[in-house]
Design a protein that fits this description.
mainly alpha; elongated; Arc Repressor Mutant, subunit A; single chain; 2 strands
Length: about 140
């Protein structure tokens, strides 16, 4: 997703390019993009210049949505899932650590909800001057 974020607005990116850039097997990426496409986060284009693109700007894609698409519900333990489809544990009423797992889940979910794909995509074409500040549009600080 970070590679697609970097490529956003430039047309489809091929899985072969992403696999080479990330040193990952293409077959593995094919499995990932199927889940991401089913979740509506990426779209595919066939053909010689085909590949995958984000369906929205990186600023609009929450990392919680990406993680849920790839891994399923956020759940440090099955009994503390954030999905209503997961049944609660038969012991949850008497469990002494239910509160702990719910707080861990909420902390993870909150962090992932607050981060977008844009937070993980480095700024393009901006280099820091020797003092560590971003140069003005003219290139002069």
């Amino acid at each position: 997703m970070v590679q697609l974020g970097r490529h956003y607005g430039m047309g489809p990116a091929s899985l072969a390019e992403i696999a080479a850039d990330e040193d990952l097997p293409r077959a593995y990426l094919e499995q990932l993009v199927t889940s991401l496409r089913d979740a509506g986060l990426v779209t595919s284009t066939r053909g010689a210049r085909g590949g995958y693109e984000l369906t929205a700007s990186p600023e609009l894609i929450r990392m919680s949505d990406v993680l849920r698409a790839l891994e399923g519900p956020i759940a440090p333990m099955y009994c503390a899932s954030d999905s209503p489809d997961h049944a609660s544990c038969a012991r949850s009423a008497a469990c002494t650590v239910t509160l702990l797992w719910a707080k861990v889940r909420d902390a993870i979910s909150g962090t992932l909800d607050a981060l977008t794909l844009a937070d993980l995509v480095p700024l393009r074409h901006i280099t820091l001057d020797p003092r560590g500040s971003i140069p003005s549009p003219t290139g002069l600080a």
